[in-house]
Every structure is written in structure tokens, then in C-alpha cells.
UniProtKB/TrEMBL annotation:
It comes from the Bacteria. One of its GO terms (biological process) is tRNA wobble adenosine to inosine editing. GO terms for molecular function: tRNA-specific adenosine-34 deaminase activity. PROSITE patterns: CYT_DCMP_DEAMINASES_2. This is Cytidine and deoxycytidylate deaminase zinc-binding region. Residues 17-134 form the CMP/dCMP-type deaminase domain.
């Protein structure tokens, strides 16, 4: 990966044991979401002080609401349950690379790190796209911001792709 202005991309070697645990939990949650008939995506918000603030799955299918991506849902829950100050500087774990909408939401919520599993290109090579897509990945969105966000991903990608394969009904 290459660096983008105002964003630090960090390789998978930077994953901590905690990062691996939470990313694997997101993979497991995403697989369960897929088996339940939802899009197979999940996210977890983890505070700077070391606690899970929220976790969510994608519920677009059951709600019919296109904004109910796992990342945005987890961010909303984290703010509602813990307050905005706890979300600022937190880490967002996503089973797959956040889309443009979710990347922007994470930026505006003040997320300090994003750790994602499968890349968007790998994910959509395996799963059908749910309609129109913006050709803006996480790096593109966050690179246009006015503060640094550390991004680690794709990480544990083969594990994540295995979970996506198992999530299909």
C-alpha cells in the first residue's frame, strides 16, 4: 500500500493481539449476519481506554434502509451509549473495507484508527454488489480529510474471505 496525504496506511504487521481478536470477532459476526439473511458485514468500536463501545451488523436487508451499514450502526450505538468523547480517537474494526459513506462517517465521528479485514475488491469479487457503488475506497475518502487516521488493512484477509464464503446462504 502507498501513503495518502493526511492518512497513514500501516501494514498488517502492525496488528496487535487485541486487533486480531476484535477483527476475528467482526468476521464471526459478519458470517452470522450472512447466515441470517443480511449482508455479511460487521463492525466493532473499541475505545482508547480499552473497552468495546458497540458492535453491529449490516441490517440493510431487514430494514430496507440503505444507511444501515455495520460501521455506521456501530458508530451510532457507540455515541448513544458512551458519548461522543469516547468515540473520538477510538478504533473501528470492520470485517470488510468500509465504503465511502462509512469511511466518511468514521472520519466525522473522530475515529483515530480503522482496522479492516477484506479489501473491497476481494469482497466484491466474491459477493454480488448490492446496486450502485462509488469508486472511492477508504484511502481516497480519508486522504481528503484534514487530520490523520491510521488505517490497517486488508488484514487477516484470507480468514475474512473464508468467513464470507461460509456466510452465503
Amino acid at each position: 500500500m502507498t501513503a495518502v496525504v493526511k492518512q497513514r496506511l500501516v501494514g498488517e504487521a502492525a496488528l496487535t493481539t487485541r486487533d486480531q481478536e476484535l477483527l476475528r470477532q467482526a468476521f464471526a459476526d459478519a458470517k452470522e449476519a450472512g447466515r441470517a439473511g443480511e449482508r455479511p458485514f460487521a463492525a466493532i468500536v473499541f475505545s482508547r481506554s480499552g473497552r468495546v463501545l458497540a458492535s453491529a451488523i449490516n441490517t440493510q436487508v431487514s430494514t430496507g434502509d440503505f444507511t444501515m451499514h455495520a460501521e455506521l450502526s456501530a458508530l451510532r450505538q457507540a455515541v448513544e451509549q458512551a458519548g461522543r468523547s469516547q468515540v473520538e480517537g477510538a478504533t473501528l474494526y470492520a470485517s470488510s473495507e468500509p465504503c465511502a459513506m462509512c469511511s466518511a462517517g468514521a472520519f466525522f465521528a473522530g475515529i483515530g484508527r480503522i482496522v479492516f479485514g477484506t479489501s473491497a475488491s476481494s469482497t466484491y469479487a466474491l459477493l454480488p454488489r448490492p446496486g450502485s457503488q462509488l469508486a472511492m475506497n477508504t484511502a481516497c475518502v480519508l486522504g481528503s480529510g484534514d487530520r490523520d487516521v491510521i488505517v490497517i488493512g486488508p488484514a487477516l484477509e484470507q480468514e475474512g474471505l473464508s468467513h464470507l464464503r461460509e456466510a452465503r446462504p
